[in-house]
Structure formats: structure tokens, C-alpha cells
Amino acid sequence: MKDWLTVHEGSAPLVIGLPHTGTEIPPQIEARMTSPWLARKDADWWVDRLYDFAADMGATLVRTAISRSVIDVNRDPSGASLYPGMTTTGLCPNETFDGEPLYRDGEAPDEAEIAMRRATWFDPYHASLRGQLDRLSARGPVVLYDAHSIRSIVPRLFEGELPQFNIGDNDGATCAPELTQGVEAACAISGSSLVVNGRFKGGWTTRHYGRPSAGMHAIQMELVDRGYMADPVGPVSPDTWPSPYQPERAEPMRGHLRRVLGACIAFAESQR
């Protein structure tokens, strides 16, 4: 196994993708960037720790340690936008969510470098994800749960404050409605705000693998950071972001997520 790619194999019909929790940046790339902090600012902070209980539930977890600022494994490798007409970041982003430049003048990757990064990190990550899905789907339907998080307020990407739970199935295309309903019901027990197919309908991973007619059900969860860590209101700085992981603060959210993952497993098992 590659040292930047971590796979925990489980036996339950659930694969969890962790595409944005990584913060590793090769030194030769980081040296061309405007700021080490900006290069890691938009990571899905602490999400891998938040979901580490999932292994005990029998889930399979696939994680890349490479920062999304190097290559975003949840973007269309062709470069096509997931949200045409809306602001978003690309396969090898040149700016942060807030529009700050990631690279010094003239140092952004060209097409040849983007292709190299795809072959080095994107393709192996997805080969591993596909391999785990195929392994489990040999015994029946399986759920792919793509785990994400984001700050509550990012004015450049969306207006106002996001709901706590943002569930995406690309308007019902990537999984059976019963799965989405089960996840929504599990989130609702928390009493926190939620939305289905709001600002986040599911990224490339969800859309690429979700084939409910073939027993492959994919769903994305975009958590808002305030549910498990300090999430400053307004612009963030190296002094305020990321806030540290505090287990006692995160534990209530972990309880909610146990119900969510339990609903995913129960759905898949009901289809077998």
C-alpha cells in the first residue's frame, strides 16, 4: 500500500471515502505556493478522526493523505465543473474557497503536471475505492458514503450559513430514495438543520459510482464544522483556523453519525 493511501477493509456493505482530510504536500509543490497555511485551509479538518469509530461497525474506509490543493480526488478528472455557472474549485485548484491564490505568479501547474498528478494520486485513490466497492458488491448491494466537512460561512461559495447536515444524491440519481430517506431521518433525530440536495448535491465520486440499478448506492455527507469543532464566524486566519480537535466536543456528533452509518448499513443489508 502506498504511504499516502490508507485502506481499512471491513465486512459490512459500506465504503466510506475520505477524499479531503489530507494535508500532505510534496515539498517541491509547496515551495511554489503562496502560503503553507492557505494550501491547507480548505481541508475537511478532523473528519478522519470524527469517523474513526466506523471501523468498529464493519465499514471499509479509504483515505488519501494528499492535500486537495495538490489534487482534488472528488472533482471530474476531465476538468468539467460539477456545478456549471457556480463558483467551485477544480481538479488542481489555483485558489482557495475564498478566492485567495494558491500559487506564486507563473507557478501554477500546467496540463502536463496536472496529468502527472492525476496518474500519481487521483487514479490510485479511485482504483482502491473501486476495488473495495467491487469486493463488497460481490455479495450484494453496497453503499458508498463520501464524507466531507466545510466551514459554516464561505460567502464566495454560498449565501448565508449552511445547514448542519448537507446530504447529496444528485437529485435522486445516485442511490435509492430509501437510502436518502434513512440518512435524512437519522440526521433529523439530532434536532439540527439539514437539507437534501441543497448547495451540495454530491461531488464527482458520488456521481461516478452511484448506480442504484446495479446495486451501487452512493451518497455524500457535507457536515458543517460547527457541529464538532470551533468554527469562527467571518474570515479565518492562521491564529483561528483550524481549531483543535476536541474529543468531548465532537462526541455528540459522533453519536449522530453512528446512527447515519447504521442507517446506511441497514439499507444495504435489506437489499441483499
Looking at this protein, list some descriptive labels:
272 residues, 7-stranded mixed β-sheet, alpha/beta
How is the topology of this model organized?
Elements: E1 5-8, E2 14-18, H1 27-30, H2 36-40, H3 47-50, E3 60-64, H4 111-137, E4 142-150, E5 165-168, H5 177-188, E6 194-196, H6 204-209, E7 216-224, H7 247-270
Parallel strand pairs: 2-3, 2-4, 4-7, 5-6
Antiparallel strand pairs: 1-3, 5-7
Helix pairs in contact: 5-7
Helix share, percent = 25-40%
Tell me the β content: 5-15%
Mass-distribution shape? globular
Mean pLDDT: 96
Q: Which sheet architecture does the biggest sheet show?
A: 7 strands, mixed
| Rg calc | 18 Å
Q: Span between N and C termini?
A: 31 Å
Total strand segments: 7
Continuous helix count: 7
Low-confidence stretches: none
Q: What class, by secondary structure content?
A: alpha/beta
| Strand ordering within the main sheet | 1-3-2-4-7-5-6
Could you describe the 3D structure shown?
With 272 residues, the chain is an alpha/beta fold. 30% of the residues lie in helices and 14% in strands. The chain contains 7 helices and 7 strands, in the order ββαααβαββαβαβα. It has helices spanning 27-30, 36-40, 47-50, 111-137, 177-188, 204-209, 247-270, and strands spanning 5-8, 14-18, 60-64, 142-150, 165-168, 194-196, 216-224. A 7-stranded mixed beta sheet has the order 1-3-2-4-7-5-6, sandwiched between helices. α5 links the parallel β5 and β6 (194-196). α5 runs antiparallel to α7 (247-270). The chain is globular and about 55 Å long. The two termini are 31 Å apart. The model has no long low-confidence stretch (mean pLDDT 96).
